[in-house]
Amino acid sequence: MISINDLFLIFIGGGIGSVFRYLTNLFFSKIYFIKLQSVLLGTLTVNIIGSLILGFAFSFFMNKLGIPNNIKLAISVGFCGGLTTFSTFSLETYNLIKNGEILYSIVYVILNVLICVLMIALGLYLGNITSKVF
Fold first, then answer.
1. What is the pLDDT of residue 36?
2. Which of 61, 72, 93, 101 has its CA at 20 to 30 Å from residue 13's CA atom?
3. 74: DSSP letter
4. pLDDT tens track for 78-129
5. Contacts for 32 with CB less than 8 Å, ≥ 6 apart
6. Cβ proximity of 122 and 70 under 8 Å
């Protein structure tokens, strides 16, 4: 059963993840003068980071029984849910296709899916190793 404390920690984690996503997009908008590239790189970056963190957390938590469930929820559902932007990714891909940027859209989808699946695998591996050390 989910408690008010669980919901509060998910809320806090989601807020932190959302702020991190915003700051990442802001960072890329400052270093790239072409808006399309900055938006795509910001979304790709948070999807990669979120996939790595979620893979790590899932693997680490599976091997550590003493971690409270509300902490697990705050990191996975809250932070990673607030951080990653699959709906944004989908809209950006749609807009690329609609604007005739077919090659960009194909590369963008491949990079997001391939790299994020690899980051889940890396995160699982790192979480497994780390949980054995700590």
1. 66
2. 93
3. I
4. 999 999 978 788 988 998 999 999 999 999 999 999 999 999 999 999 999 9
5. 38, 41
6. no
Q: Name the amino acid, one letter, at 95.
A: N
Residue 2, sorted as left (phi over 0), alpha (psi -120 to 50) or beta, turns out to be: beta
Report the candidate in 63, 65, 84 with the shortest Cα–Cα distance to residue 75: 84
Q: What is the pTM of this model?
A: 0.79
- Say which residue the tokens 């991190």 belong to: 20
C-alpha count within 13 angstroms, C-beta hemisphere, residue 42: 25
Task: Take residue 94 and report the two structure tokens written for it.
Answer: 């749609």
* Beta strand spans in 3-84 (E): none
* Token pair belonging to 104: 């960009």
| Token pair in block for residue 110 | 């491949």
* Separation of alpha carbons 8 and 14, rounded Å: 10
CB atoms within 10 A of CB 98: 9
Neighbours of 34 (CB within 10 A): 9
* In the chain, domain spans: 4-133
Q: Per the structure block, which two tokens stand in for 25? A: 């997009």
